[in-house]
Design a protein that fits this description.
It is a single chain. The protein is an all-alpha fold and about 230 residues long. About 50% of the residues lie in helices and about 0% in strands. The chain has eleven helices and no strands. Helix 5 packs across helix 6. The longest helix is centred in the middle third of the chain and has 18 residues. The chain is elongated and about 60 Å long. The relative contact order is 0.16.
């Protein structure tokens, strides 16, 4: 089971609803480049990239899709080759057999149910083979139709440390975040936490002294004023 960071949130720093706006604003100022790291040029490429990103890094996925997307441009292309060929083409992303089955099943369903187009509604996306809620949330948000809040390992850790949730289950964490994060921020909020989690609030050694929200964080390990934004 993934480590929980709930118990780190001990300092009294105020109500979640009162803190969420300044948290979002400060993180947005500190990480203006916080966007999805996957590279894609169309809704279909986005969907494939997110499906391939399970259990691997975005860097690895981008390396694979650079070639993959020159060969596979339409849903039909994924069905026109033997599954073994598709498996070889995505081998480096890991779990390639299951991913190939999911991709082919998804492409078939896109053609049969959605006229070959990637749907934007969450309830449609989760019907696609291999597309769970997290994947569906990412796709919907990047298509400009965020209907939930993506919860990955970084979002889970920072939400717990910031005292925005006391839950461990991603579905329950998402529910807590939806209650306090303004709907217009549902799409960008996970990116802000992800980038802050990579750059500052790491799992093993969070740099609290460098954190722009340390005075709003009940898990902060230092007692200082908000850190100034570091120069570019």
């Amino acid at each position: 089971m993934a480590r929980s960071y709930v118990r780190e949130a001990r300092r009294p720093v105020g109500r979640r609803r009162d803190r969420i706006r300044p948290i979002i604003d400060r993180l947005a100022a500190a990480h203006p480049d916080a966007t999805i790291a996957l590279r894609f040029r169309s809704p279909l490429e986005l969907l494939v990239s997110v499906m391939l990103s399970a259990q691997t890094t975005d860097v690895n996925v981008n390396r694979v899709t650079e070639t993959l997307f020159r060969k596979y441009r339409r849903p039909e292309d994924y069905l026109a080759v033997p599954q073994e060929e598709l498996e070889r083409d995505i081998f480096a992303t890991g779990f390639f057999r299951q991913k190939a089955r999911s991709l082919r099943g998804t492409m078939r369903m896109l053609l049969e149910e959605f006229d070959g187009e990637v749907p934007k509604r969450l309830e449609d996306l989760v019907t696609l083979p291999g597309v769970a809620r997290k994947t569906a949330n990412v796709v919907a948000a990047e298509l400009g139709s965020a209907q939930g809040v993506v919860v990955d390992t970084h979002v889970r850790r920072l939400s717990q440390r910031l005292g925005l949730t006391r839950q461990d289950d991603p579905v329950k964490i998402e529910r807590d975040l939806q209650r306090i994060v303004p709907r217009e921020d549902w799409g960008r909020f996970p990116h802000l936490l992800i980038w802050h989690g990579r750059r500052v609030c790491t799992a093993r050694a969070p740099e609290c002294a460098e954190c722009v929200v340390n005075d709003l964080c009940p898990s902060s390990r230092v007692d200082v004023q908000p850190a100034l934004l570091r120069p570019a």
